[in-house]
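Hi team,

Filling in the usual template for the complex we talked about on Friday. All components are listed, including any nucleic acid strands or ligand strings, so the model treats them as one assembly.

SUBMITTER: L.P.
PURPOSE: interface mapping
COMPONENTS: two
RESIDUES: 837
SEQUENCES:
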Amino acid sequence: MTLVRISELSYRYPGVIAPALDGVSLEVNAGEFVVVAGASGSGKSTLLRAVSGLVPHFYGGAISGSVSVAGNDTRDHGPGDLSRDVGTLFQDPETQIVMGTVRAELAFGVQNHGWGAAAVARAVEEAALALAVDGLLDRPTAELSGGELQRVALGATLAGRPAVVCLDEPTSQLDPVAGDELIGLLRRLNEDQDLTVILAEHRLERCLAAADRVIGMLDGRIGFDGSPAAFLIWALDAAPYLVTPGARLLSRLGLDPQPGVKAARAALRAARLLPGPVDVPGQESALKVGRETGSRNRFLSPRHADSPSALRFDRVWHELRDGPVALRGLSLTVAPGERVALMGRNGAGKSTLLRHAAGLMKPTRGRVEVAGRVALLLQNPTDYLVHDTVAQETSAGALARFGLSELADRHPRDLSGGEKQRLALAIVVGDGSSAGPDADPGLEEPAVLCLDEPTRGMDRAAKDELVALLRTIGVAVIVATHDPELAAAFADRVVLLADGAVIADGAAAEVLCGGIYFATETARILGGAGGALLPEAGAALLERERVSA
Amino acid sequence: MTYRRRPSSLHAAAAGAALGWCAALALALIVQSNPVVLGALTLTIIAAGALAGVGAELLRALRLAVPLALTICLINALVSRNGLTVIWRFGDLPILGQTNVTLEATVYGAVFGLRAAALVLLGALYSLAVDPDQVLMLFRRWSFRSALSATIATRMVPVLLRDSKRLADAQRCRPGAAPGRLALMRATTAGVLDRALDVAAALEVRGYATAVHAPRRDRRAASRHDIGFSLAGAGVAIVAVVGRVAGWCPFSAYPLLRAPAGARELTVAFLLMALALAPFADRRGIRG
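RESULT (copied from the run log):
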């Protein structure tokens, strides 16, 4: 049964000349799990907004063509009417939670639909059980973590039992554990309750394996519509930035790309490049290398205290009043020019560590020593942009250094996400011209650059651009991130935090190889073999083993 | 400073009863001006906060309330030309001109400041002890959207506080000269508007714009806490209004100070305190 029917849909936001959607036609059947893939600005979010009725009823603009959801034409029915059939979840859970307690939040939508008290109570109970938030029902929403908030927001979306749910990058603010849990949960709801899912996501390696179908968006048009495996084959030529690391690994070995770790492993096993789960006698695979790297006792390799350091944490504690301990006697030394990725779950202490480095927080015990200025780029680059033009935000030299000179006359809020990120970097790093003993202490080249979740919500092209930029800066760089692919591409060293303490500290190839959540897709496919983190290294390793076998 | 369910009689009462009790105290603070009565009402609010388990939060609110009260007192003392008992002669001051501080203007300012401080504390107690979601349910029958707007506005306060802290942190990370206040204010406003837009979109897709009235719920039987706080609120309101009409606790500042603190004023003050705090005595079924 066709649930969503889009016919020749074109749409332009008010005041914008280029169309956000251009002649899109599409049908989604009941019970399908559809992933919408595309670069930033390709029209993914706008497509979801059109299905939920926010386009054009909420955003205005010019529209042609038609969208029909469960038989309701969105030209005649606004988002309020459509909310009985369409649940919508956005990126930021904080702005979607409108009530004081989880119970009231889950009840809000169905109460708006005029359900009676008994029906509301049942809907709340069932949504809470389905989303495993039943233990949170009487908790104030202000006290929930990001992952909990997103689950509650999804529960509130699903409480009214919509036929279709549209999710716009719902995992972008979650750590890998919470993100994988959310995707798994959506798949389970899709299978158990026949819920139709339309999911826009940048981190395709996280969700392609769960999808029945993928829609690839290119500049407001549908570039591809088909199965996840076929999508990866299409993307290899048409949109390489959408290819998952696992697919890149397989294609480099001359194999057809497959979505997900399990399918990729199966393809490698079929090509005898990877041993089976239980080795069959007489069937030797090319890859004999086990997980010889990453032995546990090497994970906490001590750094010499007397070696030169750009930043040193010496048994630093940070105890919050009426709250948990954010840092527990943390010791860490970062050498000049070293590139460090800081990983861990939400609440592990990553942001607190960076704030201590930059002097925004003071330790309750212990010492933080820095060899100069620390530049800190916080999670939201927009917070740095307060002027009317890009040129007013920082010096011409800094703009030139970060490739922003041509944008000098633009309004900072009109820039793309990647450009805002670069401008904020230019602001905190400066042009590096003020150096030497007479330099203004506020403007000298920083000794350390810290970035807190810099790739949140970014597509792969923007991430690659950021990695290339960070490699040119030449000072010690610490990046707090949830993205193992970014950590593998950028860092010499990975520090894993949990509960305010360092639990693993070593070369990226050691730390990111052995895990499940904090591991790259390549490492998970290869089971950590050979310390290969990225597709190129993994393919080279398998080729070497194939030749030697 | 947000609502969290705690083990107290006030939290156990239905939002309607708790809201009525708070409104009665607010009414008493507005209609009564005698310093003895106002002082007693302020102590009542602090005691109620302690009994409701939010004493520490109320003390934090005091940090805002006390400077507010002192500022009001000071401004009235310096600006008011009323009163006959001069206690300080400043002579000619720039802008203010001839400035004589009178006892009457100082006491009037102090009383006004005390009332403002008490209302701030009462507001804090309300937001800490009365469930905003229940208040929304209570008012949606009459004016759903107004009630929702008020609730959302309350909900936005902590979000915006977090946003402004983030913005301040980002500005602390900027090397060199800090941006001007006007630029910061514009950025803050733009951020608030963005947030408001996000929340509005979230409300739209949750059916807010087409909200329909639910079938009337079966009326829940009133608990003894509901009855207790309702009766206490009614008692406080009656004593305060009757006391005002009957002139039991007179107060006038100008031209000469008249603020008696005799047996009648003390009795009214005690009666208001006892009435307001009586429901807290019933702690049966409250686990803490």
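MY TAKE: Chain A touches chain B through 64 residues (CB under 8 Å). Residues 279-286, 288-298 of chain A have pLDDT under 50 and may be disordered.

Thanks, L.
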